[in-house]
Known about the structure:
Elements: H1 2-7, H2 10-75, H3 78-88, H4 95-101, H5 103-112, E1 116-122, E2 128-129, E3 156-163, E4 172-178, E5 190-196, H6 197-205, E6 215-219, E7 224-226, H7 239-245, E8 250-257, E9 260-268, E10 275-282, H8 283-286, H9 288-334, H10 349-388, H11 393-407, H12 411-429, E11 435-437, H13 438-455, E12 460-466, E13 475-477, H14 482-492, E14 500-508, E15 512-519, H15 526-534, H16 543-556, E16 561-567, E17 571-579
Parallel strand pairs: 12-14
Antiparallel strand pairs: 1-2, 1-5, 3-4, 4-5, 6-7, 6-10, 8-9, 9-10, 11-13, 14-15, 15-17, 16-17
Helix pairs in contact: 2-6, 2-9, 3-4, 10-16, 11-12, 11-13, 12-13, 14-16
Amino acid sequence: MNKWYYRLSLRRRLWFLVLILTVVSIAITGMMSYWIAFRSTESEAFISSQNTLNKTARVFDEKLRHIIVTTSSMMLSDPFKNAMEDVVSNHSASYYTRLSSLQTPLGQMKLIEPSIQSVLIYTPVGEMYATNDLRNGQIRFKDTLFSQYLNTTERVVWLEDHEDPLFSGKSRVISLIMKPVTEADVRDVYVVVNVKEEAISKVVTDGLLDQTKNYYLISNKGETVLPLSGNTPPFQGDASFLEQLKNQERGFFKHDIAGKKYLVNYSRLTLADNWTMVSIQTQSDLLHQVNRIKTITLWIMLCCAILAFVLSNVISSFLLKPLHKLQGLMKKVEQNQLDVRFTSKYEDEVTQVGLKFNRMLEEISSLIEDVKEAEYEKRKMEVKALQAQIDPHFLYNTLNTIIWKSETSQNRDVTEMITSLSLLFQFGLNGGNEMTTLAKEMDHVRQYLILQQKCYEDLFEYAIELTDPTLRDVPVLKIILQPLVENSILHGFQSMDRMGNIRISISKSESHLILLVGDNGAGMDVPSVDADMRSEQTLKKSYALRNVYGRLRLYYGNKADIRLSSEPYVSTTVQLTIPLTGE
């Protein structure tokens, strides 16, 4: 082989070498293209499906949350409190009076949340419900499927899809069982809220971009919670499949079902943590387009090989020297020498390539400057986008509290809450500017705390301390204290049986501003929350911290940081450290 090869002329040897290299390069490129397309398509499918599923799960959670808030608001009404006082005193003589007075709050529940089918309040002195809902008198409450959930320690329990046994009509519903939220020490009292299956299903399916036949809402036991489609889940009874769903709250994995490979995405609900949203798709359907790419790539490889055979002999003799020169310039460009240029006294094709190479270098230099400017603008837009992610859910509670206080003629509280809400938005909007002053940021969080104290009476106290009044005009990012305070209220004090305390302390070191938010709440798992806060994927358990951390790093870079510490029910603190000057 070697003797035969070296007997050829240099031109023939170059032609032969170019031909072999061309064919091999095309083959390798084709195989790598197929492999990259396969991996990329699979990865993008996982991520796209997971994003869709996460959004759908969040929408579903918000719906469940709104139903719970609506029910809790009813429990705060005077008619319900009066009924509970009768239960405590075992006074059944005023049953019909209490039943009549409850018609208004029960009716308001359906107006606020149209998906509610019916509501039953079971008490030892009698059942109470909206009189326009036809109670099925032949079935006792404790003889229904609800009986197995009455002795649970959970205050809120969700039941999967079933036929309503309490009221006439045989409607398909999912049910919420809540123990009363009242100051009186009541026992054996349960509020059952039946939610229309059709309405709750529409909340899920309206958020799905593709067909719902591949989506399922299941319990930890693999049972269907809500029939999103008429298909039987292919993973029905598959223990190994259900085991993988328990690993994390959300994620994706591959799984073999009946000899077929499936790509599985799942996301567990927050307010019903034994319910999981699952989507599956077969790998063959996903890779159908990739297989077409493989076929087209093979044909392209064959055509290129034939073309290389015909043209390599001609091209090799003319392009060898100029190409070497061009190759040398390219190596210099790889070493970031962008000032090199190709020159030639000929006007052939290689020269044209060289001239385009020169133009490309000029455009690259221009694009580098454009990219720098675009990255700066991107950072500004990311700061605005992150600021827009602040969860406005407390607004719903605030408005509901205003409505309730207005209906109970607590006009002074209504005026104060509306004033605080107005100031909250004024300081939060800040004229569209990302930066504000420390004084305005303190006023913003103070108005938020005033509103939350009205919404959650006797839940917590607060104090704001500024060690140095000269810091009031220091520029800081807006809305960095409110998410941390919101964390304390929503996650720190909800399970406490004593008064919560929030302390905000602001001081400075030599070159940094120190903002400390502390509480005496339930605390947190510091290593886990800190790792989640600093990771690249968004997880629900440290959303507020991730939001503030991401904005600080975008604006201040490595000069800003967050430090966490926690001793449950003693002291939990979040310390923000930011430079006293901006970028």
